[in-house]
Input
Amino acid sequence: MDTKQLLNQLNAKNVANTFDLAKENNIDHQKVIGAVNSILALNNNIIFAEPITSKCWELTSEGESVILHGSYEVNVFNAIPSDGIAQKELMQLSNAKIGFSQAMSKGWIAIDRSANKIIRKIDSVLDQVKEDLTKLKLNCDEIDNSIKQDYKKRKLIREVVIKSFNLSKGPEFTTSIMKLETELTPDMILSGSWKTTEFKTYNFEALGQMPAAGCLHPLLKVRADIRQIFLEMGFTEMPTNNFVESSFWNFDSLFQPQQHPARDSHDTFFLDDPKTSENFPQEYLDKVKEVHSKGGYGSQGYGYDWSKDEAKKNVLRTHTTAVSARMLYGLAKNFKPTKYFSIDRVFRNETLDATHLAEFHQVEGVIADYNLTLGDLIGVLYMFFERLGMTELKFKPAYNPYTEPSMEIFCYHQGLEKWIEIGNSGMFRPEMLLPMGLPDKVNVIAWGLSLERPTMIKYGINNIRDLVGPKVNLQMVQNNPICRLDK
Ligand code: FB9
Output
């Protein structure tokens, strides 16, 4: 529909709705909207367009198929010959099951048990469903609401929200709008026609076209900002491109005992294929076995019969601390003070709820140096979280199998006006570090948090399914503002 057609039809009607105009002209509603926008862009006093939201019923693809091929119950009825038909043969028809139950409930057919056949109870039937849907397609309100609800239940129609415009004539209404020129061309200058041509006034307020570019998901924006914070603090990113990890690196190397509940399939995803990992540094593995079963380095160990088969089992890593263990082991041979970080997906067999999925992104910072103390850890946590806009911190003693002491980290969140948990931290235990061969005086401090929690708080998202997963509204991804974690 072009602007002239729209203006002529509005002129005849005085008022009109864009959705009704689209139906009357049998064209797509967006074409009418396009013509309205062209007129408003030229001059917003020619027509007035009041936005309205209404509900309407439209046919599903099944509904469209009924209009084309008839309703399932009529097709089943018509497929029954006058002397009846075996049910098995009748069920060969497409959608026979639905058609059969509808035809039975309408009393059109019956089961003749003596002849073991399906028979007609009446001579002929009217395809009311097809008639109703044909009417509905032309006009939303043609059929009774109770019937609509039945067809909705049968997935033949669905209710949709229509955003349309009620059009009326503006004070400068005309059916002959002259399309104002927007470009001064060489021909106009040469011919002199520019002298009599109407040019559109330049709109210096007009915004630029939204570039048809992609948009970063909020999680990736926060990840980029947190990565930048670590890099500016001199940390090196760890390689985390392995979601599958052996239980050895995910648990045993961290001095996490093989009976620990976190190692149970209720908490951890174990792999069927490949079920196990085979290659471990034998000398290191022996030391891990020793420290678990008999202790060492001043520790009494756990005193159980450590099993290599248990350590070989592959899992979806439950924390990126498994990567930290690999990296610290790699440091041991030629140790120098190092700061590592990682941000990547981890997987836990969690009970799903509004804020928990079976996976999340863990953020982890690790510092290995001589004679580090808990004070160093607290100091670096203040430095890190300050860059995330959190300055008022509190620490609460906690327990992790691989760190001692451990602390939960809390901050007073001004926006939420309450204390919130923002992470966990600790000093890796000697039973973890010494079997790796790290020098005696080396301590390692580390901390972790998630990516999802800060992102949800920053972007005001309450349900994790609005942030990740198939139900994410891509408009949210396009609209959400730039990430400023320190604001
Ligand atoms: O992220 C968490 N909370 C958080 C972080 C930042 C934030 O910023 C807002 C803008 C202001 C807000 C909240 N938490 C950790 C705390 C809780 O959300 C907690 O309920 C959920 N935790 C996850 C694990 O849950 C199964 C968050 C995740 C977590 C917890 C611990 C670690 C990593 C992630 C760790 C660790 C660690 C400890 C010692 C050594 C090495 C790693």
Remarks:
- The radius of gyration is 35 Å.
- The chain has 19 helices and 14 strands.
- The longest strand covers residues 47-59.
